[in-house]
Amino acid sequence: MSITLDLPDELVHRLTAEAERRGTHVVDVIADLAAQLPPAETPARRRLAFVGVGASHSGITPRIDELLADGFGRD
User: Fold this and answer.
1) Which positions ≥6 away from 22 have C-beta within 8 Å?
2) What is the tally of structural domains in the chain?
3) Residue 17 to residue 69: CA distance in whole angstroms
4) Residue numbers of the domain that contains 32
5) HEC profile for 18-32?
6) pTM to 2 decimals?
7) Can you tell me the distance from the alpha carbon of 30 to that of 11, in angstroms, rounded to the nearest whole number?
8) Distance CA 31, CA 22 (A)
9) Model confidence over 28-68: pLDDT tens digits?
10) Where are the alpha helices (DSSP H) in 1-75?
11) Residue 34 placed within a domain
12) In which region does residue 27 sit, left (phi positive, over 0), alpha (psi from -120 to 50) or beta (all else)?
């Protein structure tokens, strides 16, 4: 794939100097720099919900050990 870039003279000079320093072509320097970019689509970080986590003295929470011993949740 080929693309055309219109860069400021200063950037062209810097890319050319870097290519000469590496003993390669400007296109190779640009490819190396582009390879260091993060992926175009980074997956969204999953947000964990901790609502309701913790000790409770209402509902079935105080009886959880008893309910589990009786087989709660077994089908």
Assistant:
1) 28, 29
2) 1
3) 74
4) 1-40
5) HHHHHCCCHHHHHHH
6) 0.52
7) 11
8) 13
9) 999 999 999 988 887 777 877 766 666 666 777 777 788 88
10) 9-22, 26-35, 64-69
11) yes
12) alpha
